[in-house]
Amino acid sequence: MPRSYQTAQKLLPLLLDNLEDYTLFMMDTEGVILTWTPGVKRLLGYEETEFLGQNTALIFTPQDCEAGIHQMELTRAEQDGRSEDVRWHQRKDGTQFWANGQMIALRDDEGQLRGFAKILRDDTRRKQIEDTLTQTREKLQTALDVGRIGTWVWDIPNDRVDADANLSRFFGVSPADAAGGPVARYLEVIHPDDIERVSATITSAIESGNTFISDYRIVQKGGDVLWVEARGQVERDDRGNPLHLNGVILDISERKRAEAAFRRSEERYRTLFEAINNGFCVLKMLFDENGKPVDYRFLEINPTFERQTGLRDAIGKTALELVPDLDDFWFQTYGKVALTGESIHFENSADAMGRWFDVHAFRVGVPEDHNVALLFTDITARKQGEDALRQAHAQAEETNRMKDEFLATLSHELRTPLNAILGWANILRLNELDLKTQEQALETIERNARTQAQLINDLLDVSRILTGKLRLELRPVVLAEVIDNAINTVKPAADAKQISIATTLDRGVDSISGDADRLNQIFWNLLSNSIKFTPSGGHIAVAMSRVEKGLQVRISDSGQGIPPDFLPFVFERFRQADASSTRSYGGLGIGLALVRHLMEAHGGTVTADSKGQGQGATFTVTFPLSLSHQTPEETIILPRDSKNDMTLPLLSGLRILLVDDEADARTLIKLAMTHQGASVEVADSAATATMMIGQSRASGHPFDVLVSDIGMPEEDGHSLIRRIRASEKQDGDFLPAIALTAYATHKDRMNALLAGFQVHIAKPVEPSELLATVAALIGRTGHTS
Questions:
Q1: 510-552 pLDDT, tens per residue?
Q2: I need a surface site. Which of 223, 534, 660, 772 has the fewest CB within 10 A?
Q3: Whole-prediction pTM value?
Q4: What are the E-state strand segments in 203-302?
C-alpha cells in the first residue's frame, strides 16, 4: 500500500473528529445508521449507543417525518446518486437547527447499492443573518412604499440607472430601463418648464460635490402630473472623478396640493377677515404656575373687533389691562379650549363691559402655543329685546295656563254635582223607587245643589271683586260669635272625618265693625280648607286674642301642609298646589283668594305659614278695631230646570264595570243601569278597576262594557284605558269603554278617544243618554218605554 494512502487513512479520522460544524455518518440501504463520529455528538447531541441502529428519520422534524421527507431523500439519492436539501433538522433535546445536507448513494464496483452516506453542516447562523436581512429589506421596502419613496443609483461613467419599483412607477419606465437604462429616459418625462432647472442642478451637484436637491414635476402617461422631491449625493473615486449619484425621490403631490389649497385659503381668509361684520381675534392664553388660566393677550384683531367690543389698540395687550374687572368665566372657558382643542359656541354676558356676546371659540396653531381664535357678535340689543319679550311671554303663558286650568277645573266642579242632580231627578221621575231610596235621592240632590250654589256664589264674589262692586254692610259684630257660627256650620264635615276642633277665644274683647255674612264667609272658607286638607283623625285649633293694633285669629291644622314653593301663591286666584286631573282634592282655587280680598276689604290682613309637606298649616287673620264701608248689592243665581223624556234600552245579561271616585255618581249610574237589567260592579279607583278586570278575565266571565270617570286621584281614566289596551294585545280580548267625565272640552274628548275609549260623554250625564250609548256600543237594538 503506498505511503501516501496510509497517511491519508490516518488523517481522515482526525479530520472527522475536528469538524465542528459538520458531521458524517453512514446508513444501510434501508436508512439504518451504521457509523458514528464525534461530530454527531457536537451537532446532534447523541451518544454513540443512542445513535447507531436508528433510522435516519431520527434527525428530521416531526412535520418532515410525517410528510415522509426522510424517505424521499433516500429515494432521490438512490435514483440520482445524491440528494441535497436545506431545511430545519432536530437535535436530541428537541431544538432545531438549519442544516445544509447531502445524502450520497454508495455502490460497489458492480453498481450494486450498498448504503448511504449523510453529510450535515450547521448553517443556522447564516440562516438567521439571511432572515434578518430579509426582514430589514421588507421593512425598508414597506417604509418606502408607505412614504411613496423611490431609490436610484446612477453609474455616471457608464450612464446606467438602477431604479427600484417605486421610482420606475413614478417615471413610467419599463423593467428593462429600470435595470440599467440611461438617465435620459428619466429626464424626458420631466415637465418642460422644470427640465432646464433640474438638469442644471444635477450638473452643479456632480461638479461641486454638493447634495443634489430639487422639486419638480413628472408628466405621467395619460397626462397626470406628479410632484416629486429628489435628493442625491455624488460618490467619487480616489482621483476625485464622479462614479455614482445615489439618491431618493419622494412623492410630494399631496403636500403641493395642500400648499396650494392653503394659499387659496389664506387669500380667502384675509378677504373674509377684513370684510366680515363679526368681530374676530386671535388670543394667547396665559396660565399661572399651577396651570390655571388667568388672562389672555390679543395677538390679532380685525377692523370689526373694535366696533363690537369698544376696545381700542388691543393688539399686544391683555384682557385685564383693557377690562380690569372682566369675569373669570372668560378665562376658564378659553383656557379649556386652548388645553383640550374642543371648540365651543355659547352666548354670555360680559358684565364688566356691559355687553352680551355670541361667541365661537376654537384652538389654532400647535397645542403648545395655547392660541385661541374667537368669532363673535355683540348681541346686547337682541338680548335686551329677548328679555322683555320673554317676560311678556312668560306672563302671558302663566295667565293662559291658569285660565286653562281654571276652566278645566270649573267644568269639573260644576258638572260633577250636576251629574248627581240631573241623574237622580230623572230616576225620581220614574216613580219606581221605594221611600228610602227616594229620600237618599233627595238628600243627594240637595247636597250637590248646595255645593254648586256655593261655587257659583264664590265665582260671583270674585267677579264683584274684579269689577270693584263688592261692598260691605258694616255694623258692630262680636267676632267670637261669628267664629262659633262658622264652626257649627263645618262641624258635620269635621265629624265625618273624625277631626276635632279646639277653640281658645278671648270673649272679653270689644266688638268690631264688619259685615257679619262676609266675616262668616272668611272663617267658613278657612275652616273648610283645613278640614279638606286634614286627614281623618286629625285636629284643628282656633285661637282668638287681642294684639297691639286689633284682634288676631289663628286657625292651625295637622293636615298635609303647604309646599314651600307654593306658599307665596296660596292666596292667588285660581291657583292650586295640584291642578292635575289626578288631584285628590276638589275646588276652584278661589276660596283663599276670597278670604284675602274680604280681609283687605275689612282693612285687615291674612297670612299663611307651613313648615312643609305633612306638617300642617296655620292661617292668621288680623282685624283693626274700627271699620267703615258701604252696603253691597247682591245677585241671586237660580239653578236651571231640566226636562227628561226618554225611552230606555234593555241591558239584561250585560256585565258592566263602573269606575268613579265620586260615591254619588257611582250610586246614580249603577242604579240607572241595574234598573235596565245590567249587572253592574263598581270601583272607586283605577287600581281597583285593573284588579277587577284581571280577575274577570281569569274567571272566564269578562266584563262587557267599561264606564270610567277621567279625573280620579292617583291615576286617571286615561292611564287606566291605556293599561287595559296594552294588556289586550297579549290576551286578545277587547273591552268596549265609555269615558264619563266632567272635563268636557273638545281637547278632552280627543284625549279620551286617543287614549283608547270608544265614546266620550260629558257630565252631567243623562241616564237615558248613557243607557243608549251602552246599548249602541254592544249592538243592542231592543228598547222599552
A1: 778 888 878 887 888 888 888 888 988 899 999 998 887 788 8
A2: 223
A3: 0.33
A4: 212-219, 225-236, 242-251, 279-287, 293-301
